[in-house]
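Hi both,

Apologies for the delay on this - the queue was longer than expected. I finally got the coenzyme A-bound model through. Below you'll find the protein sequence and the ligand SMILES exactly as submitted, and right after that the structure tokens for the full complex including the ligand.
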Amino acid sequence: MIISAARVDDLDAVLALEESGFAVGERWSRESWTAELEHPDRLVLVRHDARGQVIGVATFSLVEDMSDLLRVVVAPDSRGRGIGGSLVRAGMDWAKAVGARRMLLEVRPDNAPAVRTYQKLGFTALNRRRDYYGTGVDALVMAVRL
Ligand SMILES: CC(C)(COP(=O)(O)OP(=O)(O)OC[C@H]1O[C@@H](n2cnc3c(N)ncnc32)[C@H](O)[C@@H]1OP(=O)(O)O)[C@@H](O)C(=O)NCCC(=O)NCCS
């Protein structure tokens, strides 16, 4: 698996992944992704294919001993091959190495591929955040001990 820290050069490819992975109202902007890349307490990881194309991205934060998985997206035709899981796993390894004890995330409960990906890595449901994604759309909060 070719996973590396994202660079500013990857931004256009990351935005293309964002478009492929989320509906219009749910997409992060160029400014949001630029902020992720520039933030000192973030790790943004990308996965390249054999031709050097970016086919997956994930971003993680660290605050004291808590890390958050903020986003993970894999290109539609590359899903189901363990790429999303490997990106999250790499972020968990980083978070543990820099002192985090837990990783948290929010996910729509109806996002079955994402929930499955997180469960495979040991994340379990903690609680729900009401209306997190808009009125009537709760978030499932999941966590794993690192
Ligand atoms: C979530 C996502 C990153 C997973 O990436 P991926 O590379 O396919 O992940 P993996 O291959 O590691 O694991 C996917 C798992 O979901 C399962 N899956 C796929 N579709 C599914 C479905 N409709 N219902 C239940 N499980 C499903 C796969 O079978 C696999 O589990 P398995 O290994 O037990 O078979 C990818 O689906 C994606 O980019 N989705 C759009 C963006 C998104 O929703 N991101 C998460 C919220 S930020």
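Main takeaway for now: The pocket of coenzyme A is lined by residues 21, 71-74, 79-85, 107, 111-114, 116-117, 120 (CB under 6 Å).

I'll put the files on the shared drive as well.

H.
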